[in-house]
Amino acid sequence: MKIRHFTIPVFIPELACPFQCIYCNQKKISGQIKIPEPDEIIQTIEEHLSTIPKKRSFIEFGFFGGNFTGIPIEQQEELLKLIKPYIKNSSISSIRLSTRPDYINRENLKLLKKYDVGTIELGVQSMDDDVLNKTKRGHSSKDVINSARMIKDFNFDLGLQMMIGLPGDTYEKSIYTARQIVKLGANNTRIYPTLVIKDTKLEKMYNQGKYTPLSLEETIKWSKKLLLIFEEANVKVIRMGLHPSENLLSGDDLVAGPFHKSFRELVLTEIWNGILKHLMKKEKAKRIRIFVSPKEFNYAIGYDSKNKNMLLENFEFVIFQQDQNLDGRKFTYWIE
To answer: What's the CATH code, domain 269-335?
Structure first.
């Protein structure tokens, strides 16, 4: 039976982050305004563990946000020590953390290895230096390359996060970034469309007419291509689209940009739309029955039944059925 993967997240907003990127207001994005105290972290762990099934589960703890390896190394160790007892009693299997590409060094990596960190995610955002400069990232693509190689040399799993639609970004540049992420040996990635959040420099640029975010349609098109690149290279896409706070969901902190709470489903719907489109060329018939794997069932039908409605332009009846013998995006069909 398949192992289920769970992550217990703790968010560290802007801790030790030396730059204020033009798009960034992590307090708005996460809904969190302070660094959790040790007892809060322990409480978070205990609450999550009480709800996670123990059998056939891989449980990891995650320090997200900010710049973990930019914290004084003594403080890093204090935070990591909180998780150590759970590693020892096998309640938690591993730790993952996110940090900046320009805050990786051998001393830090030795400490992280000592405390059972398994995955290090770097906020790459783009491998185009012009985009990095325009977004005030404070690091270069060379920093990403050097850090990624060092992380792989220490046998950590490597995560490389990217953003699309930043100032200066293009469809071609986003594809280049994805291919570089593959080339650097990333085990996993995240794809974040750029949103204009309140109280950021990007909001000022937007209000001054100096920045235009991608439309939702453009973002889906870009992300579809990126997802297929990563899938072909066996790089796991952990997330597509920002994980929102309630303020983002309500629109209170979102000024503009391609936000959708079901963004990944929209992208997968579009992939299936391209797969099923050729069925429209079939001779007009009364009924079509399409068999897909259970995991792909909803995406094949499409968000808001987009793909089913497309096929209904050609067939009087469109029936989707699950087939346990199919995997991935393989499908079979018959027409009557």
So the answer is: 3.40.1260.20
